[in-house]
Every structure is written in C-alpha cells, then in structure tokens.
Amino acid sequence: MASAFPPSSIRPLLKEVTSLLTSRNESISIAETAAGGIISASLLSVPGASKFYRGGLTLYTLESRIQFAGWTEENKKNYNGPNAEVVSGLAKNVRQRLGSTYCLCESGTAGPGGSGTTPNRKPDFVALAVASEDGVVTEETTTGTNGDREKNMVEFARLGLELLKRVLVEKAEGAKI
User: Fold this and answer.
1) 126 with 141: CB under 8 angstroms?
2) Which pLDDT score, from 0 to 100, does residue 173 have?
3) Are 10 and 154 in contact (CB under 8 A)?
C-alpha cells in the first residue's frame, strides 16, 4: 500500500525541488502559516533532507511572527490579512535568520470561513514568496476548493513548492529573479 504522506499532488514536486537543491548544494527554509507545517514535513520526508533543509517555522498566529520572524507590534496592528508584502517580509526575515539559500513562505485563508470581505480574507486565497540573495518572487492566487480547509492546506503547500520550483529552474537557466 502506498503511503498517504506526503500528499500525492506534492510528491513529484518534492523530487524535482530536492534534486535541484541537492545538486547545487543549496538550502531551503520554510515559513508557513495556513499550510500548518505540510511543506516542512513533506521536505523532511525526503531521505537526506539534512543536506538541503535548514529549518521551518509555522507562523500561524500574529504573536508567533513577533516572537520568531521579526514582526513588531506595529506589524500586528496594521495586519490586513495575507498578501504579497506580508509573505515577502516573512520570507526575507526567516531566510536571513536560518542562513538558507532560499526561503519559501506561504500565508493563506484555508477556510471553511474567512475573516473579512476582501479577497485575501476569503477562503481559498494564498500569498506565496520565495526569497533568495537575488530578491523575492511573490504570487497571489486562489485554489477554487470552495473553502475545504484540508484541501486548501495541501494545495497551498503544492502551490508554494511550484513557485519554488519555478525560481530554482529559472536560476538554473540563468534568469535573474
């Protein structure tokens, strides 16, 4: 019987991403919120993860971002939900703190309910970022799962790994981020 973890939609990406990181002697750190640790756990399921994985933080609460990711009370006061600016800042901070080549950050609204009326506060929304010494690449998207919390958590992880793969491939092809 095949293992249910990591999720089947993530497995092919894991192979590609970890192969690229390992072959180039590069490393990754993770800052995730709504994915709840799925990205880190998936990466750690790969044998030899210690060669590329520097660490991860599940920054689900705003308080955890203050304690572990360089946020201030001002960031907390001005927080308006997940967006490119939030994930970019978290990715840069965690990358620097953990000394990794890249940091993948995810922050979304998994559902089933949301916490506001703006698109980024409704279920299925996710903001993603990959930080490196070359800069930060961000993406905002929706999953279309109709607020299915578990499906969104996995899909947020998959979309984050997709973005990381694109950044790694573009770098391999010599494109400037």
Assistant:
1) yes
2) 81
3) yes
